[in-house]
Amino acid sequence: MQIRLTIKNYRCFTEANPARITIRKGFTALIGINNSGKTTLLKFFYEFRYLLETIKNKDTWEFCLAESTRQLRLPKEIIDNQEIFCNANDRPISIEIEFSRENDSEAKEILLPKKLIFIVERNMSYSFQLFANYGLLTSQRFKVVDTGKSFKFQQTSFTDEEMHQGGYDDYVPVYVEIPYIEFADLLHSLGNTLYIGAFRNSINLFPTDDLGAVRNIQSLHASYFDINVGLTLIKQWRESKTGKDKELIRRIYALQNDIKRIFGFDELDINASVNDQTIQFVINNNEVYNLSELGAGLSQFFLVLANVAIKQPAYILIDEPELNLHPSLQLDFLTTLGNYASQGVIFSTHSIGLARASAEQIYVVRKVDKYKGSEIIDFDNAKSSKYLSEFLGELSFSAYREFGFNKVLLVEGVTEVKTIQQFLRKFGKDHEILLLPLGGGSLINANFRDELQEVKRISDDIYALVDSEKSSPEETLCPRIQDFADMCEEIGIKCHVLEYRATENYFPDHAVKAVKGNSFSALAPYESLKDRTQFGWSKADNWRIAKEMTNEELLETDLGRFIKQLIAE
């Protein structure tokens, strides 16, 4: 299930140029220059959280059918309510949510609504309407039934045409159903977000014995949007690490291990000071540092990860995740964040390279002019990713070398980037090999020679890993893939074609179940994920499943042996 948002007359997005974005699992990037509207789009989910959260309740749907109005509640950061409206006209904000099935495994027997429209008036009252293929659903013709598994909109009255169509006794009432798992949970996840602004050093407090100063600091530094900061976070960290919630304690220690691994520490322990005035890091040989003594990158890691580990949102919304981080840590930071979000990460960035290396979908946000506001357009991944030499230039590969990157591995797409990153991480080599997406199977062919030759001018140590797409072990490679492999060999790129069909065919059953649940099972070696009519999963989940594999399981396969050779050479 996925939803498409269309937002009109909200801040810089006008009625003529609304914000349009598809919300799905995985990573979504917003790229653009300063003041183009990237942050505005992220903050939409924060500012309209109250409205989006109400969707989970039955009385909200009854209120929807009755076409009543309610008053909108906005967060404390908004001083003037009118600032959320577009200043190019005096019309209300319109938020349209359209629904569609993302893959064939979703139940087709359930008739889903077509769209949901919220209207927010300038007096801060709002109403919303639910539409099916045959029109608006109202209380005159439908009632809401909570079945325990879904909200069902059952038809209660009929038109003359309906009553005489084959006789009333033979007429089957129309209904629309909202299943909790597929639909209501997805809508509710829009309100279960955590917004992380671009200014992320609010935790840097200095120890003091002046209790008056402590109280003053505590009153001024409680939260920054969704991020608890200062003494509030320090106290929360202590209570989470030493409290009774065992699952939360496990997450806190997992977070410590993430930071230890990413920054290459041998030992790391993070604790609140006795007086709750600072956070103390005990690193390696019992060297003790207050948080204010650490660099901005490490401080940011702790501040952000501590909040997301405790709150466990559905979506993490973050402005410029690359801030204060050198290139080798940026992708790692994003995927580590993704571990703590059940649905995905939506981020704004100035780095085209980071967006193309991590996001399944990318949007460009740009200003039209001061009267027409901003617009959002899809970024053409296939076309842009074709020019890999340009991509390496955007990533400043020479700078990456200074931070320890010495090889380039080309993989099929962005889902493979994050998946192979997890495999390399198992061997501690994820900061030494730069992963670049080829842009999909359409670019894996012999016509790609000129672009690969350009990449060879930048680095000689280049590898490629591609799917075989075979449906049986006896099947030969299709000409397109075989020609690509032959071309790589001719120009000096070490190319490995997987023995199994694709990367997801290497996942063991326990790893699939750990991420997706006991109803799901591993693919057979040559089974297509697209052909799974039930209990299939999105490729955006592949990296999470890869994380659950053991080193031993990986090394038993040709994929594992290729990775071992890659890191050994």
UniProtKB/TrEMBL annotation:
Annotated Endonuclease GajA/Old nuclease/RecF-like AAA domain residues: 4-353
Full protein name: AAA family ATPase
Superkingdom as given in the UniProt entry: Bacteria
InterPro entries associated with the record: AAA_GajA/Old/RecF-like, Bact_Antivir_Def_Nuclease, P-loop_NTPase
Native organism: Pseudanabaena cinerea FACHB-1277
Lineage, uppermost ranks: Bacteria, Bacillati, Cyanobacteriota, Cyanophyceae, Pseudanabaenales
Pfam families referenced in this protein's UniProt entry, alphabetically: AAA_15 (PF13175)
Residue stretches in coiled coil: none
